Amino acid sequence: MRYAMAIDTKKCVGCSDCVVACQTENNVPIGFCRDWVTETVDGTYPNVNIELRSERCNHCDNSPCVRCCPTGASHFEDGGIVLVTHNKCIGCGACIESCPYEARYSHPDGYVDKCTFCIHRVRKGENPACVSVCPTSCMYFGDLDDPNSEIVNVLKNRKFNALAPEAGTKPNIFYLT
Amino acid sequence: MKEELFVSGRNIPNIDPYLHIWHWQIPIYLFLGGLAAGILFLAAVYTILGKDKEMQATVKWAPFIVPFALIIGLFMLFLDLKHKLYFWQLYTTIRLESPMGWGAWVLMIMTPISIIWSASYVREVFPNWDWKFKFLYAFEAWVIKNRWYIAWPMAIYAVILGIYTGILLSAFNARPLWNTTILGPLFLVSGMSTGAASIILMSKNHEERRLIGRLDLLFIAVELFFIVHMIMGFLAGSQVQIDAANLFLGGEFTVPFFVFVILLGLLLPAVLETLELIGFKVPIIIPAILVLLGGLIFRFIMVEAGQVTRYLY
To answer: How far is CA A153 from the centre of its chain?
Structure first.
């Protein structure tokens, strides 16, 4: 089992519903977020291209954050989901420094927090909050090891890229272009 | 032309717009770790060479700073933790993959060794010192008898500690400025240099100061070579590393780096120490203090600048 997400940048309108859904579902403190929307503008008018991306922790296969954690608080859960055990985290910040996506932040309570792929929902067979609220249905969540899953199908038929693959992290969020 | 901006209003404290998770505590921690490594290494080497009579400051006096440096350093690390009450978990896990993990363990071994080393010289500094218990006298006698054997692991651990202060940073792939293997040796040599400088400050023996001064000159030369090597490596690297090097070559850290680290922290003390060697009268305290300040500022700049370098946005 290998959980991953594919996000269609052609369908995303940048409404930030995913951001708000995540903050509500996971009780993210005010001023922080586990996912966010980035807008990339290429070229100058009239030849402009805008790409909108909903970004979050990439739940990398080769996670630098898991590697550098001195206490083992950052770890892999089933399906390759990277989680932080709050009462094992000492808040040293090494994982925040190690993440090329800057997907982690220091929670006001002291521990390090980040996207969990809504593991509490995924275990019940539901989609992560961000995926389930997306008004344009531009996000796909599923198991890469299941050849019949929607995400494998969409990655087979569309062009996609990942963020900073040169960082060697083997990210699991794919952007359909 | 490519331009990127956040539209979700992401403005997380200490992450946006630039990462600033590690504050002033970490450079001080790295500086004190390097200083301790330098002093202990030189103390161990001169003990192994059997020169503890000639090199009083190196072997006896300067190591007295080390336990304090290590304890303050660890306290600095503790101050930088955000989940402080859970700090003990550092010592209930052994994770060799994590530089911070094994570094904490190296410090845990180094601190008692340095305390024992200094304690065995306490009665030479304070002749009236009383250990109160018989077993402490027995332990002291055992340490004094076996100093030569203790010096070996101490020298090896000192090198590991010095390299660790660099590896702590260089293990982060996500920060291109830190992600260079030369950082370990560079911080080690810089630590040796600051260690030598503090020995020079404490020594009253002219011969010893000359010898350590010459060693310091060697450390400075190697350090300069490593810095050039590091920047050359960056410029021959990927785009993110070229951007990292450009922080020092025209970017926002150019002036502090070249003025405080290269000029005042390395070149000027090297010139002053050379002048001293060829017979001019130079108060040795000046190059020593410059080296110490240069080493401290170097770590501040590396920690700050490293956090500015990134892959995305």
So the answer is: 20
Cβ-defined contact of A39 to B5 (cutoff 8 Å):
yes
Please give, one letter per residue, the 3-state secondary structure of B10-73: CCCCCCCCCCCCCCCHHHHHHHHHHHHHHHHHHHHHHHHCCCCCCCHHHHHHHHHHHHHHHHHH
Closest CA to B260 of B225, B231, B301: B301
Cβ contact (<8 Å) for B14 and A106? yes
Cis bond leading into B17, ω under 30°? Answer: yes
Percent helix, strand and coil across chain A, each rounded to 5? 25, 25, 50
Q: CA distances (Å), B152 to each of A154, B45, B147, B295, in order?
A: 61, 8, 9, 26
Partners of residue A103 in chain B, C-beta under 8 Å: none
Nearest residue, CB atoms, A33 vs list B1, B8, B77: B8
CATH number of A3-176: 3.30.70.20
User: Phi first, then psi: what are they for A140, rounded to 5°?
Assistant: -125, 130
Q: What are B97's two structure tokens?
A: 């993959």
Q: Which residues contact A30 (CB under 8 A, 6 or more apart)?
A: none
For residue B162, how many C-alpha atoms fall within 13 Å in the half-sphere facing its CB? 27
Give the ipTM.
0.91
What DSSP designation does A78 have? Answer: G
> How far apart (Å, rounded) are the C-alpha atoms in residues B58 and B54?
9
- Domain boundaries in chain A? 3-176
Rounded distance, CA A5 to CA B287, Å?
Answer: 58
Residues of B in contact with A96 (CB under 8 A): 15, 19, 21
DSSP B100: H
- Tell me which residue of B199, B214, B206 sits closest to B39, measured CA to CA: B199
pLDDT tens by residue, A124-176: 999 999 999 999 999 999 999 999 999 999 999 999 999 999 999 999 999 99
Please give the helix or strand (H or E) that residue B206 lies within, else none.
Answer: helix B206-235
Q: Which of residues 6-35 of B touch A (CB under 8 A)?
A: 6-8, 10-16, 19, 21-22
For chain A, where are the alpha helices, taking DSSP H only?
Answer: 17-25, 64-68, 94-98, 119-122, 129-133, 150-157
Shortest alpha-carbon distance between residue B213 and chain A (Å) = 37
Residues of A in contact with B21 (CB under 8 A): 93, 96-97, 106
Note the pLDDT tens digit of each residue in B102-140: 999 999 999 999 999 999 999 888 888 888 899 999 999
Quickly name the fold that domain B25-308 has: Formate dehydrogenase/DMSO reductase fold (1.20.1630)
Q: Enumerate the H helices of B120-204 as residue ranges.
A: 122-125, 134-145, 147-170, 183-202
Comparing CA positions, the residue from B217, B215, B249 lying closest to residue B231 is: B249
